[in-house]
Write a structure and sequence with these properties.
Strand order of the largest sheet: 3-1-2-4
Number of strands: 4
Number of helices: 8
Number of domains: 2
Radius of gyration: 27 Å
Strand content: 5-15%
Order of helices and strands: EHHEHEEHHHHH
Amino acid sequence: MDTTLYKVVFEGQTHSDQHTEQVKQNFTDLFQAEPPQIERLFSGQPIIVRKNLRQQEARQYEEAITRAGAVCRILIQKPVYTATVLDTLQEIPPWETEQPDAPTTIDAFSSKGRLGRAHFITYTSLCVLLAAVLSSTAWVLTTGATPVIPKGAAIITTISACLLAILASIPLQIRRLHDLGHTGWLSLISLTPLTNIPFLCYIALRPGNRGATPYGNTTEPPSMVVNLLAIVLPLLFVIASVLTLMANFSDVQTWLQQAFGLLAPPPQ
């Protein structure tokens, strides 16, 4: 049984299409509170509207506040449930001024917590880039009149680099799945052929859940550098792949013909 508790925090923010005075009136009707209490809610300080809530209860409060024209946040509390009777929206809440929990900090290769899209794309791209650099360097050392290393060593290096990249990406996938509200075991899909590419596109492109989940609070927002790398690195990989295919088109065509048994018979 999930014992995780949540609190609803309001910081005086309203939707852009709503007038503050109307939202205050909506709050007065919603909470049946006095004007001084409503003004305190809109002081700009983080106010705990409700605490000791189950996730479903917290979502209900979030929906009610959203309908009233305001914006709130759901954060995790300690997993100790002490309430015996569920609170209702008609009761005046025990509003407290408290600094909300800080967002989850980013620990690149930990499997605990959550990971946003930009960080996931950036870290995964860096893993692939490192594997590509190691593999390319090994194959470059096999060329020339006097190869530095044999081709067998280049093959072993390539396989090892790919395995390291896969192992390093698994914790990233687990935390990204947590951000989407899924169990980390789904990361095993990335190891299966055919389904791995759609799966990775799904976890890379789908927005994460708003607010807290059983896996932690929302992650800290990505910096400008991380956002830039999340765009530039995938584009570089696509461009490099296309240029490589164009430069070695004849070799690729021959390999495909041999692989699928389409190689034309030799002339008589």
